[in-house]
Amino acid sequence: MPRPSERSPINLVSYYQNIEDNFPVVCFTDGSKINSKVGLAFVVFQDHIETEVHQFRIRDECSVFLCIAQAVNWIRINEHLFSNVLICSDSLSSLYALHCITSPNRLIVKTQTNLNFLQRRGVQVFFSFTRGHIGIYGNERAD
Question: Which of 11, 41, 71, 102 would disulfide-bridge 126, Cβ 3.0–4.6 Å?
């Protein structure tokens, strides 16, 4: 496991109207548990055009934090496509967990490791908290 000195907190930015104009790629994530069934989704917009939708049914004991981890994995696989990415999530607890560089949680450590890999490759990933169910189109699409 990487030491905390080898991990860095995520880049958190405040969400504001038209923030998407500053990023060529914006990814909205969402996870939900309905009737004890857990699923996640993330929607990718490139230059304001919805280009991909990913939906997964995950094990019932899994956390919705997995949404952000899946989005970061997708970015790592496709890192050659872009240099700046904004990931928007309505899970403040997930963003706080990712911001903690001393967390022993393996999924958090793996996600932070992927983010460090991307940063070394010149891909800057920013995160923003978006309130759910207030009409933000990308968030509604992921929901």
Answer: 11
Within 7-135, residue ranges assigned H as helices are: 66-77, 92-99, 106-120
Side chain identity, residue 116: N
Cβ atoms of residues 125 and 72 within 8 Å: yes
Give, in words, the CATH class of 6-142: alpha beta
Phi, psi dihedral angles at 41 (to 5 degrees): -150, 150
pLDDT tens digits, one per residue of 81-122: 778 999 999 889 889 999 998 999 898 999 999 999 899 889
User: How would you list the strands of the sheet with 11-12, edge to edge?
Assistant: 11-12, 124-129, 84-89, 25-34, 37-46, 49-58
Q: pTM of this prediction?
A: 0.87
CA distance 32 to 29: 10
For the chain, give the number of residues. 143
Say whether pLDDT at 42 is over 80. Answer: yes
Nearest Cα to Cα of residue 10 among 132, 137, 97: 97
Looking at residue 128, what is its pLDDT? 93
Distance of alpha carbon 41 from alpha carbon 71, whole angstroms: 9
